[in-house]
Each structure stands twice: as structure tokens, then as C-alpha cells.
Design a protein that fits this description.
The complex is a heterodimer of chains A (about 270) and B (about 260). With about 270 residues, chain A is an all-alpha fold. Chain A has one domain (about 20-265): MetI-like fold. Chain A is built from 12 helices and no strands. In chain A, helix 1 packs across helix 12, helix 3 crosses helix 11 (about 220-230) and helix 7 (about 135-160) packs across helix 9. Chain B has about 260 residues and is mainly alpha-helical. Chain B folds into 2 domains: about 1-35; about 45-260, MetI-like (MetI-like fold). Helix content of chain B is about 80%, strand content about 0%. Chain B is built from 13 helices and no strands. Chain B has helices at about 5-35, 45-55, 55-90, 95-105, 110-115, 115-125, 135-155, 160-170, 175-185, 185-200, 205-210, 215-225, 225-260. In chain B, helix 8 (about 160-170) packs across helix 9 (about 175-185) and helix 10 (about 185-200) runs antiparallel to helix 13. Classes of the chains: A mainly alpha (about 270), B mainly alpha (about 260). The interface between A and B is large, with 69 and 74 residues.
Chain lengths: ~270, ~260
């Protein structure tokens, strides 16, 4: 047990503390709140807004479409091949990100992408436009690619947990299909849905690799701003601004994950 | 439950749309990877062959595969004895170990990278500047997933009875863990190993920001000079990861079956 604790201390706790402490120090190690001022600069606020918009929109898109897809496959019999294949593929694609994912979308709707060329050959349409794929709108499309499958993995068990007996009981008491969904199923599913929404939000907020490959100009989101802060050696004191930005990420993700765990506890009350 | 025809049509159309969204980018990547450079007509497998012939790419593939192997070994060596020991001897510490293992879910990898440069200047000072030193960071990265897989497997066996039986026959703790407990949780360890390999093969955050040449970093660099070859390498790594993760779902299904029949 001691080697394990030592390992976690060195490679997880120390780096995290370095970030937290470094956020409140200037480059000579004196305590300061100056780095936090950098968080309220125009560029930092724009990046934070970009990150929040990206995370919220892809969480919402992922949650709604993922819940829809979960419903479509859960309505099939458990031994159905399509259902099992969808769950297996979702397990793969939810882990899918980084370089490969960025490449896949460049190959599809990039400047010489397959879909881009097909569209212009067939209808003369220019879906590449002025390069929206490499900005915030492109990130929304690309992030949804792993958010929807993640939602399926997280949320399909909630659908599966709805017992047929509850529906039968409701119908016996005179409920229509609409009444059942409105008064039994939806209230049961709501905590699980909101919890999944928060998980997806944190997932998108913390993601870095895909955006790093896709976006080479500008810093539309916080992770890319951190990249700029820690890779540019020309600007002195940028390292500590990087710490402050990283602290901002910890705070946001921690808050969201605490909410997620509370909702998870609420959701597991009925669905076991 | 019976479904109306209308619903079945809606379901089929919906599933087709989802399938299109998820598979078109992969097919596009395949199409791209077989193109001849410079948009000349015709198809070629040269870009796929480059994975073997290109020196930089090949060495990065070797580095990534070795990293995956070492990550799995170190993860098992650290996690399994700790979890068995905590379960049998110090149940009070279980909450702490679980908290530490799940912590990387809350602390983004990027944040760890930002704070880890001091630690890594020591690591490279002590162990040299090979990409393999990333093993340490990757073990942290895979901790939550590995912990869950191994914890589930350990919960399914009666570790206390097994170890007491072995101890009363004179086995030491090393024997108990390696020869008694581990063979009984092979499924969980395999699951943990698969997901670790899958994560390591795609990992870009640590490798790129700490400047080590792993496969994803090499692919991103190669893309600037030879797009189709980078696409081929990306698709190949994606397929390998997909096979591993699909195998993982079958593995966990088999475990369910065993649990249900016993």
C-alpha cells in the first residue's frame, strides 16, 4: 500500500498542489493575487465563455440525442443484434478523441474532405465555408461525436431500469401512454438525465486533445489558452497565469462533478 | 411490449441517421488514406505501408506499444497488491484509496500536465529522456478505470476466505496475492489492461505537451507533410483500440453470465 500512496502523491497530488499553490504566486514565488486578475482579462473571459458555450451545447446535444438513441435501442428486445452492437460501438466511440477524431472530421468536412467534395460536385454547395470546422462551431460538431455515445452508455441502464411492472400498474390504474410517461417514467428518469448532462458537461470542459489538433489559431476555449500559456516562453510570468487558468478548470470541473454525484445518488434510489 | 409500424419505421430511420453520423467520418478517413498524394487519380495502399517503412512513424509506434505494455505492468503491480491488502487488512483505508483512484476523473489531464513539469524534470534526470518515462503519468490517467474493473472483480470473489485458507497452509502474502487472488480475478485484470492500452494508444495531452514522440504526436506531425499517411496510421490505431474495447464488452458480458449461473 505504501508504494501506491507514494506514487499517487508524487504523480497526482504534487502536480495538483503545484497548480493550486502556483496560481497564487508570482514568478519569484511571492504570494500574489495578480494571476487571478489575469483570469478577468478580455482574452481569458472570452475563452471561458467559449468553453462554457462549447460544454453546455455539446452536453445538451449529446444528452438529448443520446437519450433518443438509448430509447431507440432499449425498445428492442435484449437479445437483438442491433441493440448489442450499438452498445458495444458506443463503448468504443465514447473513448474516441484526440488526433484520430480530429483527422476523421478533417477527412469528412475539411477543405478537401469527402463530404465537402461530394457536396460541391453534386449541388455546388460549399459546406466548408470559411473554415468553421477549425473554430468553435466545428468543435461543437466534433465533440458531439463522443458525447452522444457517452450518453448512451450512461443513460441506457436508466432506461433498462424502468420495470415493465410499473407500466402495467399505471395502465391498470387507468393511465394512458402519455400519463405513464408524464407521471411515472419522466420523473424517474429526470435525476439520471440531469446527472448525465453534468457528466457530459465536465467531459467536454476537460477535453483538450481534439481541440489542440483541430484549432491552431487563436484560443477560443480555456484548455487552448492554457496551452498557449505553458508553451510560449517569450512572455515572462505566463507559467503562473497557466496555473491560474488550470485552477479555474479544476474549480469548474469539481463543482460539476459534485453535482453529478449528488444526482447519481438521487437517481439510484429507484433504478437498481 | 408491441410497437406500432409507425414507431418501427421511425426507429429504423433514426438508427440509420445515427449510423451515418458515426460511420461517415470513419469511411471518409479510409477513403482519404487510400488516396494518391497530390490528388492524382487512382488508389494505393502505400500510405498504409508507410507505417512499416517510415523510420519516425515506426519508432513512435514501437514507443506507444511499449508504453502501453509498461503502463499495464506498473498499474497491475501497484494496484492489485494495494487493493487486496486494503480489503483484507486495513478496510478503514478503502475510502481513501477509492478517492485517490477516482480523483483523475475530477482533475483534467491537462491540469496534471501543467503541474507535473517539476516532477518530470526529476524523472528524466533519474531515468533518462526516453518516451517510456510517460508510463508514470499514464498509470495515473488509467487509475479510475482500472480501479473500477479490479474492484468489481475483487468484490465477486471471497478474498478473505481464500487468503485465510492459503495463509493457514503456510503461504506468505506474496504467494497469496500472486498465486491465489490474481488467478481468481483474471477477468477484472484483463479488463483493466484493455482499457489502459486503449487509453495509452490514443493519449495526446501528456505526450505532446511534455514533448515525447508517441504515435499520436507523430501522426499529428506527419499530417502536416503527408495527410493520407497520417490518416492511415490514425485509422489503424483506431481499429486496434476498437477491437480491444469490443473484446472488453464481451469479456464483461461473460462475467455477468458466470455470475448469473452460480
Amino acid at each position: 500500500m505504501l508504494p501506491f500512496l507514494f506514487f499517487v502523491l508524487v504523480f497526482l497530488v504534487v502536480p495538483t498542489l503545484t497548480v493550486v499553490v502556483g496560481a497564487f504566486q508570482d514568478e519569484d514565488g511571492r504570494p500574489t493575487l495578480g494571476n487571478l486578475d489575469a483570469l478577468t482579462s478580455e482574452a481569458a473571459l472570452t475563452a471561458l465563455r467559449g468553453s462554457l458555450i462549447l460544454s453546455a451545447s455539446t452536453a445538451l446535444i449529446g444528452a438529448v440525442l443520446g437519450a433518443l438513441l438509448s430509447y431507440l435501442i432499449v425498445s428492442m428486445p435484449p437479445q437483438s443484434m442491433v441493440r448489442r452492437a450499438t452498445l458495444a460501438v458506443s463503448g468504443v466511440l465514447a473513448q474516441f478523441g484526440g488526433v484520430v477524431l480530429a483527422f476523421a472530421w478533417i477527412a469528412t468536412i475539411g477543405p478537401v474532405g469527402v463530404l465537402t467534395q461530394a457536396m460541391s460536385d453534386l449541388w455546388g454547395a460549399n459546406i466548408y465555408g470559411s473554415g468553421w470546422l477549425f473554430g468553435l462551431p466545428g468543435l461543437v460538431v466534433v465533440y458531439s461525436y463522443f458525447q452522444i455515445p457517452l450518453m448512451v452508455i450512461v443513460f441506457a441502464p436508466a432506461f433498462e431500469g424502468l420495470r415493465p411492472q410499473w407500466r402495467e400498474a399505471a395502465v391498470n390504474l387507468g393511465a394512458s401512454t402519455w400519463d405513464y410517461w408524464r407521471q411515472v417514467a419522466l420523473p424517474l428518469l429526470t435525476p439520471a438525465f440531469l446527472g448525465a448532462l453534468l457528466l457530459l458537461f465536465a467531459n467536454a470542459f476537460a477535453a483538450y486533445a481534439t481541440a489542440a489538433v483541430l484549432v491552431s489559431q487563436g484560443q477560443p476555449i480555456v484548455p487552448l489558452m492554457i496551452r498557449q500559456a505553458i508553451t510560449s516562453e517569450v512572455l515572462l510570468g505566463q507559467a503562473n497565469v497557466g496555473f491560474a487558468l488550470a485552477l479555474e478548470m479544476i474549480v469548474v470541473v469539481t463543482l460539476v462533478m459534485v453535482g453529478y454525484n449528488l444526482l447519481l445518488r438521487r437517481a439510484s434510489r429507484w433504478l437498481r | 411490449m408491441r410497437h406500432s409500424t409507425g414507431f418501427k419505421v421511425f426507429r429504423a430511420v433514426g438508427l440509420l441517421l445515427f449510423a451515418a453520423y458515426f460511420f461517415v467520418p470513419l469511411l471518409a478517413m479510409f477513403d482519404f488514406s487510400t488516396q494518391v498524394r497530390g490528388s492524382a487519380p487512382g488508389r494505393t495502399w502505400d500510405n498504409w505501408a508507410l507505417m512499416m517503412t517510415d523510420e519516425d512513424l515506426r519508432s513512435s509506434i514501437v514507443a506507444s506499444l511499449l508504453l502501453a505494455l509498461f503502463t499495464v505492468l506498473l498499474m497491475v503491480a501497484l494496484l492489485v497488491p494495494t487493493m487486496v491488502w486494503v480489503r483484507l487488512r486495513v478496510p478503514r483505508a478503502r475510502g481513501l484509496v477509492e478517492f485517490l483512484c477516482l480523483l483523475p476523473l475530477t482533475i483534467p489531464a491537462l491540469v496534471i500536465v501543467v503541474g507535473i513539469s517539476n516532477v518530470y524534470s526529476w524523472v528524466t534526470y533519474l531515468l533518462g529522456d526516453s518516451a517510456l518515462v510517460l508510463t508514470f503519468a499514464y498509470v495515473v490517467l488509467v487509475l479510475p478505470y482500472s480501479y473500477r474493473a479490479i474492484d468489481a472483480a475483487l468484490s465477486a470473489i471471497d478474498a478473505a476466505t481464500l487468503s485465510e485458507a492459503a495463509r493457514s497452509l503456510g503461504a506468505g502474502w506474496f504467494t497469496v496475492i500472486v498465486r491465489i487472488i490474481m488467478p481468481n480475478i483474471t477477468g477484472g485484470i484483463l479488463g483493466a489492461a484493455f482499457i489502459a492500452v486503449a487509453l495509452v494508444l490514443g493519449e495526446y495531452v501528456f505526450a505532446s505537451l511534455l514533448h515525447f514522440d508517441t504515435l499520436p504526436v507523430a501522426m499529428a506531425a506527419l499530417y502536416k507533410s503527408n495527410g493520407p499517411a497520417a490518416m492511415a496510421a490514425a485509422l489503424a490505431s483506431m481499429l486496434l483500440v476498437a477491437v480491444l474495447l469490443v473484446a472488453l464488452t464481451f469479456l464483461s458480458r461473460d462475467r455477468h453470465k458466470q455470475g448469473a449461473s452460480s
